[in-house]
Structure formats: structure tokens, C-alpha cells
Design a protein that fits this description.
Number of helices: 7
CATH topology of the largest domain: Jelly Rolls
Number of strands: 35
CATH superfamily of the largest domain: Acetamidase/Formamidase-like domains
Oligomer: single chain
Largest sheet: 9 strands, mixed
Distance between the termini: 71 Å
CATH architecture of the largest domain: Sandwich
Helix content: 10-25%
Length: 517
């Protein structure tokens, strides 16, 4: 072949590949939403605020008892934390988030200033020895003492950016040695030559459609669309040690437990080991499947508002588990009690979760342990939280609705309590709760209109379709008329009306707290 013609074909091939890559980057370009930088440019829902600035974060390591706290708050305080995803700033992605995200069509102004600053900072980080996570905190909760329990209630989660990343790295994940396929890590891999790590990171934009967030994996003209369910993977208190712990393995004090049920409306209980508890957050997720098999889930930066309350040692508000006092994480949501098992051996993690389940139901509700064990086998799902963080996790989902004969349920707004009814496997409250929340509502011929901070909401009795402004979406529950009164599913308060609802169990009582942040 003529040499000039060969070079011409080569140039055409390179240009074709470049155009193709640019087109794919454009097709993956994320929607434009306000990017929440580390300042009050988005609504700060908590009374206190911790930005993810250099002086407030650690990279790949958890705090220890000698670590300086970044903020002091009283028990019961609602704190808004900014969190930063490690994806896009790591060494195998070039340690340059503007360049990395720019290659996927993200404008420089839409890259978090915090991420840019952290990647360029002198914060120490060893890609091979440290965890990848950016950890915000710790916060001192006044009055917390060793032996107490810190009650952690997730009040709100908001994406800081309209994109995330899913990664699979060599020597990590469920299928070590099998994935990533077709690549190897070269000895001279470095941030200057990130491709030599041979790792796979998949840029994933998120979009809001009809009031719901979705992640998109797109190739050419086809895409996979999946709903988001945000949560913070790392929530923990500081261990009683002067050692520096990797942020990767979860432990009895929480940390990287990666339980995907711990989204808005969840409550996590953590045993306090040091004065002030020293609470921290990190590893924000847009969504994660049980197992988190590739290594990461869809990771993306979140703004999290969390209420921190000290429960004194021996308090009846502490879940009763296998020990005399809580020694490992325990969680609950509106629907479930969630005993958590953690161990390097997945079988042992499963056993721990089952033992905690038996102890909780027998001690908390006074049910015979033999009956509890039978019930767990018949009716409770045990899920693998994750298998990729050295210490593996298994958690139970014990449906609260199965125990309504043992329980009294109330939902509080300020000082007023509303009785909660269990109907059709879901919890309901009188629609009059709207007025107590300061939401004007109107009912006519089974049609319900509510004015909320999110806009006008319209719903209909016996219909699971909800309209918020011009957008409509569906839930699995519907408003009901019962005994001459109008009942709303508790789920709609948070999902539709923008109300923060969190739950805690005390003896035979489940108490919810509803508020608009």
C-alpha cells in the first residue's frame, strides 16, 4: 500500500475513534442540576453544618481517640454533612477530577470544588494500603460517654452532583482474579499513567424523571435505567484506639457497614467507645445492590442531614440484643428491624445476624426463643450487605408489621401523637396529621390536595398514583377511607409530602417523629 495512503487511513481511523468517543461522552453527559459546593448554596437543613473542606476530612483512614474534632454539638442536634465520593479523584483515575469528569462531558464548574481541592492537596493517601474513602468529621456529641449508645437518624439526603461512578479494581471485588477482564496492572502504574492500573470505572449519570431519580448505563442507542436509593455507606463512632484504621473494613463501632437500607428515615444505633462519640460519615452511595459485587456501587457525593442523640447506658431506648448493652450496630426503618452481623467469614456474619435477631425479639418483645427461631426461618429475609470490604456483612429484615399484637405505634408531630394503624401490611396515619405539620390540605369526592414545600400534591383514595406539580409517580400504597376517616400511608409522608419521618423502638412501643426540615 502507498505510504501516504496508509497514513491517510490511519488519520481517518484516529479521527473516527475520537468522534465516536466524543459522541459517547456526550450521550452520557449528566443532566444539569445545581451542584452543591461546600457553602450554603443549597439548603442546609440541619442547625449545624460540616463542609467537606480539607481541614474537615480524612482520606482512607478513620479517626482515632486522639483525632481533633471539627465541631461540637449537643445531643439531639441535626447536623448537615457534605460528603465527597472518592470516585474521580483516585490515583487510578488520574487524581484530577476536572480532567477525569471532563472526559465524560462534565463541565469544570460542575465538578465539586471539594473534590478538586482534596485531589490536589497534601492529604496523605496510599492507594494500595489505605481505604479509598473521603471521611468527613469527626463531630463531638456533648455528653456521650463510653458505654452509651449514639442514635443516628438519617433525616435527608440530596445529590451534590448529577453523576456517579461504578468501579471494579484488580485484587478487589467478589471475583478477584476474574475481573477486570482483559487487563492487568503494570508495575509503573501511577496517577500520571492511570491507564496502567488496568482498572475499570464506568461513568454513570443520574436523572430525575417524574419525581424519581434514576441512574443510566448507556451504550450507543440502548441504556439500562435503574432507580436510585441513596444512603451513606460509612457512619460510625471512633474506636477506643490510638491506631490509624483503614476506612475499608466495618467494625462493631460502624464505619463502612454499607447496609443499603440506611437511607432517609432510617435509624442506626452505635456503641460509644470514646468521650463525645466522635461521629463521622463517608462513602456516599446513590444506590447499591446487596453484595456490592464489583467493588463499588453507584458512588456519588451526597449532602446528608443526620440527627445525633445520646442514649445513656441502660436506657430502655437502646435495642435489646445479644449482650447486656449494645456492642455492635443495630438499625431500624419504618418497615424493619435490622440486626447486623459482621465478620471476615460470611458464614459467621450470618450466624451473628441470626443470633442478634433471636436475642432482640425474645428480649424486646418477650417471645419464646424457640418460637422466634421458627419465625425467622419462615418469614425473615437475610441479605448480604457486602462481600468486598474484608469484613463481610449480613443483615436481617424483620417486618415490624408482623408484630402489631405486641406493639403500640405512635407518630409524633411536636408534642402531639397520632395513632398508627397497620392495614394491608403497611402503616397508616389520619390525614389530619397534615394540618399539624403546617400543610394545608383539601378533600373532595376522594380527591386529596396538599400544599407542600415541594409544590402541590394530588392523590386519590384507593389509587397509588401521586402527582407532585407536573410530575406523577407510583408507590406501592394508596390513601384509604376507613371507619369514616381518611388515612394516609406513612410512606407517603416522606416519599411524597417531603416530611422527615424517623422511628425508634422502646420496649413495646414504636415511636415515629415527623417534621419538615
Amino acid at each position: 500500500m502507498n505510504k501516504k495512503l496508509f497514513l491517510l487511513f490511519g488519520v481517518i481511523a484516529v479521527l473516527t475513534l475520537a468522534v465516536s468517543a466524543a459522541a459517547e461522552a456526550a450521550s452520557l453527559r449528566a443532566d444539569s442540576i445545581p451542584v452543591l459546593h461546600s457553602k450554603e448554596d443549597g439548603r442546609i437543613k440541619g442547625k449545624y453544618y460540616v463542609p467537606s473542606t480539607i481541614e474537615n476530612v480524612r482520606w482512607g483512614r478513620l479517626p482515632n481517640k486522639n483525632t481533633r474534632t471539627v465541631l461540637d454539638v449537643p445531643s439531639g442536634a441535626a447536623v448537615t454533612f457534605d460528603t465527597v465520593s472518592h470516585e474521580g479523584i483516585l490515583e487510578d483515575q488520574g487524581k484530577n477530577p476536572v480532567k477525569y469528569y471532563g472526559s465524560h462531558g462534565v463541565a469544570a464548574k460542575d465538578v465539586l470544588q471539594d473534590a478538586i481541592a482534596i485531589a490536589a492537596s497534601a492529604l496523605s493517601h496510599d492507594f494500595d494500603k489505605d481505604g479509598p474513602h473521603i471521611v468527613t468529621g469527626p463531630v463531638n456529641v456533648k455528653g456521650a460517654r463510653p458505654g452509651d449508645v449514639l442514635k443516628v437518624e438519617v433525616l435527608a439526603l440530596e445529590p451534590r452532583v448529577p453523576y456517579g461512578v461504578i468501579s471494579n479494581r484488580h485484587y478487589k471485588g467478589a471475583l478477584v482474579g476474574e475481573f477486570p477482564e482483559g487487563t492487568t496492572r503494570e508495575k509503573d502504574a501511577s496517577p500520571k499513567r492511570p491507564e496502567r492500573y488496568g482498572n475499570v470505572s464506568i461513568f454513570t449519570p443520574i436523572k430525575k424523571i417524574d419525581g424519581k431519580w434514576f441512574g443510566y448505563l448507556k451504550k450507543s442507542d440502548k441504556e439500562i435505567r435503574f432507580p436510585l436509593s441513596p444512603f451513606v455507606g460509612i457512619m460510625g463512632v471512633t474506636p477506643n484506639t490510638t491506631e490509624s484504621w483503614s476506612s475499608v473494613p466495618p467494625a462493631n463501632i460502624g464505619g463502612n457497614i454499607d447496609v443499603n437500607e440506611l437511607g432517609v428515615g432510617s435509624t442506626l444505633y452505635l456503641p460509644v467507645e470514646v468521650e463525645g462519640a466522635k461521629f463521622y460519615v463517608g462513602d456516599p452511595h446513590f444506590v447499591q445492590g446487596d453484595g456490592e459485587v464489583a467493588l463499588t456501587a453507584l458512588e456519588g457525593s451526597l449532602r446528608a442531614t443526620i440527627r445525633l442523640t445520646v442514649l445513656r447506658k441502660g436506657s430502655t431506648a437502646i435495642p435489646k440484643t445479644n449482650s447486656d448493652n449494645l456492642l455492635s450496630p443495630f438499625a431500624e426503618t419504618e418497615k424493619f428491624w435490622i440486626p447486623i452481623g459482621l465478620n471476615e467469614d460470611l458464614d459467621e456474619a450470618m450466624k451473628m445476624s441470626v443470633r442478634e435477631s433471636i436475642s432482640f425479639l425474645s428480649k424486646q418483645l418477650g417471645i419464646d426463643r424457640r418460637v422466634v427461631y421458627a419465625y425467622l426461618s419462615a418469614a425473615v429475609d437475610y441479605e448480604v450487605s457486602q462481600v468486598v470490604d474484608k469484613t463481610k456483612g449480613v443483615h436481617a429484615l424483620i417486618p415490624k408489621v408482623d408484630f402489631t399484637d405486641y406493639l403500640k405505634l405512635d407518630l409524633k408531630v411536636g408534642q402531639k401523637s397520632f395513632a398508627v394503624k397497620a392495614l394491608n401490611g403497611s402503616f397508616y396515619v389520619p390525614a389530619s396529621i397534615c394540618a399539624e405539620l403546617g400543610l394545608h390540605y383539601f378533600v373532595e369526592n376522594g380527591n386529596i390536595s396538599v400544599r407542600t414545600p415541594k409544590g402541590a400534591v394530588k392523590m386519590t383514595v384507593d389509587s397509588n398514583k401521586y402527582a407532585v406539580g407536573p410530575e406523577s409517580f407510583f408507590l406501592e400504597v394508596s390513601p384509604l377511607e376507613k371507619d369514616g376517616g381518611l388515612l394516609l400511608p406513612v410512606l407517603t409522608l416522606g416519599e411524597v409530602l417531603g416530611v422527615s419521618v424517623n422511628w425508634s423502638t422502646e420496649g413495646h412501643k414504636i415511636i415515629g417523629v415527623a417534621q419538615i426540615l
